[in-house]
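Provenance

Sequences were taken from public entries as deposited. Structures were produced by running a predictor on each sequence independently, with no templates supplied. The record for Polysaccharide deacetylase from Acinetobacter tianfuensis is shown for reference.
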Amino acid sequence: MIHLKTQKFFISLTAIFCSFSINAKSIALSFDDGLNPALNAQAEHINSKILQQLKDQNIQTIVFPSLIKIGDAQGKQLIRSWGINGHTIGNHSAFHQNLNNPNVTAGSYIQSIQMADTAFSDLPHYQRIYRFPFLKEGNTAEKRNAVKSWLHENSYQLGAVSIDASDWFYNRKYLDYLKHGDTAKLERLKQAYITHLLDRANYYDQLAMLTLKRSPQHVLLLHVNAINAAFLTDAVRSFQQHGWDFISAKQALQDPLYQQTSQNLPAGESIIWSIAKTQGNTSLRYPAEDAPYETDNLERFNLD
Ligand SMILES: [Zn+2]
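Predicted structure for Polysaccharide deacetylase:
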């Protein structure tokens, strides 16, 4: 009798465990751009604070530096420390150009990728994984296809994102409130920022369920910036409380989702957004993320 009860107990435990792992959504973090210590006195502090939090949370990510964003040797040293800490380093081009800009040619754009490759190839854990600046992949089929073919021929993996968000917008607010020493506003901003990130993650996960019929291994787009240096641990804990598991960026990018390429024009945005667009989803806003979309969320937290 006791034996039977014990067996039942283990069977129900297994059932709970299995249903939990099926329902858990997985997410990896990626950080774009990098900082230039010559232009930002806080660069080193921000960089090391983000790295420390990732270490404490045991999360392996990917950073996508752009030469024009990091400046010269000092900025590169900050990126090197990501590699030393075991994070993957990708390529985000030299000049951070918008490929949807009619003045940007495929030829000059490819040169910018090559320049960054030369500059970053000696960094630990550098890999040929490319992230398009602004997630813009070309305003014409010729440009889109020329750059994609070049990346493919040069053994580049695509560093697409599934979850686009506007941390850059909340970072502007953060710096503004910080400058004015408004601690009450900063606390409300933390809540607003985390709510925004969770909202975007859930939105793109639901869009994935509609378009892919599954929840993929997500990749979230963030930047190396002050708001993430301040609030990253709180954001990570909040995601975990809402059923998200953190996985390494390396693992997440193995999802076949990230091998798909945009069929739309203009091309780009989140890969899930892009597939939904190709499938004819008419409810999608463009661009996928922008400052005006955040007005309601700010009001919700009594911020302006
Ligand atoms: Zn960027």
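Residues 183-211 form the longest helix (29 residues).
Residues 32-33, 66, 92, 96, 133 surround zinc ion (CB under 6 Å).
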